[in-house]
Amino acid sequence: MILVLEKGISPRARRQVELALKRDGYAFSVLPGFERRILSVRDRPGHDASVLPALPGVERIESASSAFKLVGRDAHRADTVVQVRDVAIGGQRLAVIAGPCAIESGEQALSIAREVRRYGATLFRGGAFKPRSSPYSFQGLGEAGLKILAEVRAATGLPVVSEITAPEQSDLMARYVDVLQVGARNMQNFELLKCVGRLRVPVLLKRGLAATIEEWLMSAEYVLAGGNSRVILCERGIRTFEPYTRNTLDLSAIPVVRRLTHLPILIDPSHATGIREKVSPMARAAVAAGADGLMIEVHNAPEKAMSDGAQSLLPEQFGQLMRDIYVIAPVVGKQVDFDYLDKAGRTVGRAAKRRKGQADVAFVGSAGSFEHKACGQYFGGRVKTLGVRTRRAVFEAVAEGAAEFGIVPLENSLTGSVHANYELLLEHELRIVGELTLRLEYHLIGAPGQKLSRVRRVLSHPHIFDQCRGYVERQQWELVPTEDEATAVRMLKRRNRRTEAAIAGRAAAELHKMAVLASGIETNPRNYTRYALVSVVPASRRRKGHGKAAKPCKSSLIYSTPNRAGALHDTLRVFSRNGVNLVKLESRPITGKPWEYMFYVDVEADLDSEPMRPVMKALRAKTDFLRVLGCY
After folding, report:
1. Which of 476, 479, 29 shows the shortest CA–CA distance to 225?
2. Structural domain of residue 574, as residue ranges?
3. pTM for the full model?
4. Of residues 310 and 73, which shows the higher confidence score?
5. Count of domains in the chain?
């Protein structure tokens, strides 16, 4: 049975409940990671459990015989994020597990690991124990394979995932790997599920070959009931009558599971299709359907692979897939971060070295705003943020050391460049060290039960009114500007006026427990903002880590040219002759100099690098003023 304690119960009252259970001979375990204190209590045959709800501090008791009490949304309404070393699975950044089906040698594993890490994988997979249909097939290297996985982690920084096939392997596996995979054939191996439930090591639970979603979630319930709440679900295709693929990938499981449970869900298109050229299309579809990540088999010589070579991508194909899902992810509020591990490592390192009171990143607004979301999506959930009132305050906080980074919007796909921030970049000696593209979906937000027809005044940031102009202009509303959209929702709740509403993102509504009155009211659904991360220290001096860390591949600069015919053309020819691709060119008036202009330019090149020195020299010769705003 499941004992749910009252929200906010005091430590003393909690201890009294636990002492009462022990006194009556009940065995129980505390389930970590839940919003409320939850105890998994083993029933005592013949013992009257009806007295337990009367214990002070007990909110309710639930029978474990009903479906998935612990994995269900009733027990934990917020999405669970499983932390695996520096990688969060279930957050705003996609987790991508990649590697060979089986560990064949140290050289093979390390070579593949370095390739997939370079392309953006966040965890490395490889089987040391391989359950095979034929007893004569390769069964894995056993402990030798586990040792290779540990060496890969030490060399690359990638957390490692491997399959456990029997309870007696548990101590050995726990010494070497970061995530224990329970394979499809073992999904209902209940003794194994109980075993991994006791280990407290993250568990990746694959759906069985012919298992229903309810059976799959009940298997997860076994792990949580054992005391381990760090469970990741993985859909890998089910057996059907269709012979054209190895299995049938059930993508409809993603929205179903997201409604039923708080656990993160990954998709394994490699085992689902069994055919190399089918893996990438299904992976792209899985991301679009809302998966929290992917599990992809990659091999540098699949024709020689000892297991599942036909479904393994080549490293270059994996790289292309990562670029594809980088484009798709923002549509569903996710991000592919090619520098995830290095960035996460730096975040942890900063926490240890951070001065008292110093934040990791400053932003305009408050929790629930899109700029706050951008902070978390760039750095992860463990970032320490500093909300300020103005853009200038962001730059000043970084320049004065109150925050190591600042995050500011540079460009919106509907309303264009945020010129005030370009001017602040010129004014301060800061550099752009990174960028992030975020899709902005706006909602009209009001009090629970409020009617849209009663709205007369709407609060939000002026830029948001511009991005929602098509919807707003059809209404007869008074528009009230605020510092940011999250502040608008906070004010709305505090004022509690049924004739007022706010325009903001869904996160602000959830944070303040308000209702969405109308969804997707931005003028164009292709509404994206490009945010820049600014800092005192250039990005090139930050990049330390395992393997081949991503190098700066984009630069932003600003320059002015002499007032003569062809002057701008001459600067553009410098880029053209050297094969440097321009991705942005925009002119802005120079303050105090009528009819004279600065040019903002973004190029796909690292202008701080040695090969680009001749380009920069030629460019300086043809400009009156030139400044590199950042290489990232």
Report:
1. 29
2. 551-631
3. 0.79
4. 310
5. 5
